[in-house]
């Protein structure tokens, strides 16, 4: 069965601190997709990154970086020099591969981590 | 442009009312989704339309009725809802491409059932 675990329910940091959000996943598939979404208080889920199971390269985008490790089934997200605007709920999600090669329709979400960045 | 629009933003309805939620995308995506999200919970998948055909129905009660009139538009018709159906309803779309398959979400409709 597929499962995504975000063990940190809430994290509070002071601006400019670095923070890492943990994500551990379970799947029996050899091909799968991992995602991170940000949900600010307004409610919209904002796509941040997609990673395919066969691509273990880490990625950096500005202050954001992601560490994908298949050996530990983890896909952690680090925000460097956090800012107040980073305050949101962050969801990690997993999707199986479909017959056509892309992801299936069903995203399996973790329970989310609420990040509060205080000035 | 990765914009998915949803109307209305807020909706209050009684248990005997009939209302509809609307979702629109103009990215040429061929899959569209409805999710329900309760407070402090992750989104839960309700329906998936792929190439305008219903492909996944996650055992949603019949008081929720989806409709996909064309590849850009997705509706969710609501009838005889219960107070526990109050939630944020999110629409998403994806290209149905093996290389670029990512779901993009709209801002949601906050529904309150009285």
Structure description:
The complex is a heterodimer of chains A (119) and B (114). With 119 residues, chain A is mostly beta strands. Chain A is 0% helix and 51% strand. Chain A has no helices and twelve strands. In chain A, strands 2, 5, 6, 10, 11 and 12 form a six-stranded mixed β-sheet that branches. In chain A, a hairpin with a 6-residue loop joins strand 5 and strand 6. Chain A is globular, with a radius of gyration of 14 Å. By secondary structure, chain B is mostly beta strands. Chain B has strands spanning 4-7, 10-13, 18-25, 31-37, 44-50, 53-57, 64-70, 73-79, 87-94, 104-105, 109-113. In chain B, strands 2, 4, 5, 6, 9, 10 and 11 form a seven-stranded mixed β-sheet that branches. Chain B has a four-stranded antiparallel β-sheet with strand order 1-3-8-7, with no helix packed on it. In chain B, strand 5 (44-50) and strand 6 form a beta hairpin. Chain B is globular, with a radius of gyration of 13 Å. Chain B starts with a strand and ends with a strand. The relative contact order of chain B is 0.33. Chain A binds chain B through residues 33, 35, 37, 42-47, 50, 91, 95, 100-103, 105-107, 109-112, and chain B through 2, 31, 33, 41-43, 45, 48, 50, 55-56, 58, 88, 90, 92, 94, 96-108, 110.
